[in-house]
Amino acid sequence: MEEKIYTHLLEKLRATYQKIQVRDALGGLAKFVLATIGAMLAVAAVELVAKLDSIGRLLLLVLLIGTSVASLLYFVVLPLLQRTFSPDEIAKLVGEFFPNLQDRLINVLQVYRDARSNPFAVAALAKVGKDTEPMDFSSSGVI
Question: What are phi and psi of 99, to 5 degrees?
Answer without folding.
Answer: -65, -25
